Amino acid sequence: MNERAPTKTVHQIATAIGGRVVGDASVIIAGVASLRSAGPTDLTFIESERQREEARMSSAGCIIVPETVTWDARSLIQVKHPKLAFAQAIELFHPPKRPPQGIHPTAIIAPDTHIGEGVTIGPHVVIEAGVHIDANTILGAGVYVGEHCIIGPECIIHPRVTLYPHVRLGARVIVHAGSVLGSDGFGYVNVDGVYHKFPQIGRLIIEDDVEIGANVTIDRATLDATIIKRGTKIDNLTQVAHNVYIGEHSVLAAQVGVAGSSRIERGAVIGGQVGIADHVTIGEGAIVGAQAGIPTGKRIHPKQFVWGTPARPMSEFKVQYGSLVRLPRWKAELDELKKRVAQLEEERNKTP
To answer: Catalytic: 94?
Structure first.
């Protein structure tokens, strides 16, 4: 059973999230809920004026709203970014739980490992030689950390994550269960039909504030470094190959595959199940729609929105897809025209 969340007044919530109260600031709030399910002691939110009528019908005790939205309600909190403010409010009622600090007796740790203050190392963790772990980082049960890895401060490494040797994580990196970081890239040399392994001796560098989902695999570089820049978010079941560069604050949704030596620039958004072939460049702020396929060497321009296989500009894709949808009707019309032409020719041939 979950522990009972602490109650807060609307005034306390507004102060914590930097909002302005409209209505009764003394209302007691005991939890958070969606707009539809919220009750008189719940906090919820809306993101735009379009949700105003739905919000007016809600039973919520308090609603976080945009700064421009107001009405005669029991309690509102006006903020600039409602969804972000609501996320911050959730933590007031459900603060992150941290396991007890210290090293579990079943952990196996090399004697030259540097362990910072406040680090938590869970059951059956294995840490090889030359590893450096900074302050307040958490390693969950069964984590494996290879030789000479560096893990920055305040990271959270969930159970069964594997870090191959020489992986470097910045500060506040979150890695979810089952992910594998720094495995060998898919590199082989074909001679006379036989594949010979090309040694993968590079590194993997993951910068600050990156979050990596469950069962993600990110390969080390062949010779230099695979690099994931700060603030990037990578969803579950994603594969990032060797020598890939992913720029700051990019987003990769679930089941994306990025082949070797591709480059994703800052702020790009890659939809679910997108396949990116090798040596592709995706420009800054570009958006690649779900299940798109990007062929080898293609360049997606900055801020361009592409979709389809092969990926092409959204405006072009819509025209082509619209034509594809009409093909059955056009075929039926063509068959009818051919039939009529054949009849006309037959009638003409019968005419003396």
So the answer is: no
